[in-house]
């Protein structure tokens, strides 16, 4: 078991190094001088050239990459061109907001998704099943920004129950969590349903029933545990992608998370911020997959003994 | 049928969720305390969701302001305009003229050769850290901007001071005794390399916001050097002398400016200004309608202009300010057939400015006939707008040898708003009508800036707004210096270019104004070097409680709020 986990962790190291290199090089290919982009119309060429030189942007790519790696090893991800703050500070202030949003929306997704899936599976092909699956389909297909605006309008503006925008208290997180959670709950519900239905066809379920177990025990003790493998994987991956930033939701609700940070970095060609936040997000996804794999091995002994 | 069912189900879900979350949310914690205003009643006081007290002005910014440090931004001036002072100020007087008035500099005189500016400073200006503002801080403000290690982004506003170039090259460490002579705590001389008539007006730009030496050194040290100084980003290290103090900065959420009780012009009556970062205009509108915002800049949502104008509750709360600037289509004379003045004139005549203004900007602009905007010295009201005359345009094209028209490109950057895209399409169809076939070329703005810098960009549409109230800031900026190539004009009238340079040195004000009347007419009308479109208006809606708001003289999105107050207890 320990060996399996160590192996999985070791495999991710070269992936991370490759990602750092690829992201850095890709961003070098982007055309445009970030200083000119940031100074917009109000700057003369002499000033742009001067600032570009003074900020070390004229140095060769390898020199800058070396500087970046060296800094990274020392915990220094550089300084944002636009916001004039250390990138580490920017990411570390944005990340907790993203975490807050990810946790609350994942909770919403799980609380809605799993029971819906289970009920649908048990009441397969009834009106209840169809209705619930209809809900999940709506959740999956509804554009997040639209759902967000609808909630803002009804709950925030009309009924004045919740704040329209911001993230300073837990009350602020309710609407964004519902929006994002609803969107993710659909896939969880559908996957739970189909996986549970698949499992319930197995011989050992029939055996369980045959030995006189009540249906609820059959479902929870034998069915659920075995049908959870794909669901847990999906939840872990969904959670990781939530942690890597929800661009649209963050922007509509004015939540200062990783997603917003990346959007502003891209439009401003803020290279230090952009490369570090992209790398950070990818790392989160890698770690998320790693955790999913490890969870998987707990649920399914076959995997860890392979 | 299935679709209908799905929609009904969706709505049912939304409302059922509304019911659950209201229970949960309401029970979780009480609404932020807000002075214990009474509840109920039809005009219930707004309960502010941001948790700040009632007597705080609430405005928005669409993205994080870059910095409060004049060396660090050329775009976001809101923090400097409210937290710092400049030597002189520009104000719009009752007659609508923009005049330079004393601020930290109580009085000044200019030597006959136009090189030496002697200033006498007020002795009652106190920085937020308690220190008095003296001549040394003015010297420090210039020195820090020109320090090469700082990469000061506004150095272009100071490099005309004697020794400025040497300092930027690292040859000298300070301008003291070179370009700036200190004659006591409250007196100093600034010496220029060459006479520069607009210098005084230039001192009122936010780039010249005065910094405190002691705080500056501390901020540099804490940030690990001038390039990474914390002066403009950390309230603990920032220091200005303005009416508001940088109090709290929560990244991507809000900046709070607290009223400076010791301000030398008298403290503002509000408790402070809350700048909320709201990237989404729909959200911004909802917040404004819910009373959570005091000022809504309709440039963020042009289609809302008629909504508020036609709403009796807001019709009297619109603040309209004509922007001291001009929108235009550029013309690159290196691209055929724009080397022919008749083609350029046809290009000007083919566009119906008034209709575009009415349909696209809901009337919030005036058609332009010159590049200088009304209010800038040298603006000639008698010239009038460029007429819409497609027949003459066609005739001119035929005369120039293009009876069947020609093909041209207009660059549109990928960050253009929907409204920008619609305006470009409308312009293209007007041009099409006289035979000019337009292809709209989409480009990423960073790549486009690169292309434009090489002097090879096709026509693009943008606008220019005054930095300081002087025609030099318009005409020389475009055609006089490096701008001619860098902005892809390639304007070839050498005589005009020389006169643009000479006009910078004319000391007599009337003579200088007359020269700019001639230059503007020659460039925009006779040579048709630019296709000027309109002077826009900036429209804001205010809540009724906002009193005394004065928009920035040039009509920027950023304003100082020193004159603003709030009517409390509605």
Please tell me about this protein's structure:
The complex is a heterodimer of chains A (306) and B (570). Chain A is 79% helix and 0% strand. The radius of gyration of chain A is 24 Å and the shape is flat. The longest helix of chain A has 36 residues. By secondary structure, chain A is an all-alpha fold. Chain A is built from 14 helices and no strands. In chain A, helix 7 runs parallel beside helix 11, helix 9 runs antiparallel to helix 10 and helix 10 runs antiparallel to helix 13. The relative contact order of chain A is 0.14. In chain B, the strands form five sheets. In chain B, strands 11, 12, 13, 14, 15, 16, 17 and 18 form an eight-stranded mixed beta sheet that branches. In chain B, helix 9 runs antiparallel to helix 11. Chain B is globular. Chain B starts with a helix and ends with a strand. Chains A and B meet through helix 2, helix 3, helix 5, helix 6 and helix 7 of A and helix 1, helix 7 and helix 13 of B.
Outline of the structure:
The complex is a heterodimer of chains A (306) and B (570). Chain A is mainly α and 306 residues long.
Tally of structural domains of chain B: 3
As a whole number of angstroms, the C-alpha radius of gyration of chain A is 24 Å
Quaternary:
heterodimer
Q: Based on helices, strands and strand pairing, what is the structural class of chain B?
A: alpha+beta
Ranges of chain A where pLDDT stays below 50 over 5 or more residues in a row are none
| Major β-sheet annotation of chain B | 8 strands, mixed
Number of strands of chain A: 0
First-residue to last-residue Cα separation of chain B:
50 Å
CATH homologous superfamily caption of the largest domain in chain B: Dipeptide-binding Protein, Domain 3
- Listing every helix as H and every strand as E from the N terminus to the C terminus, the arrangement of chain A reads HHHHHHHHHHHHHH
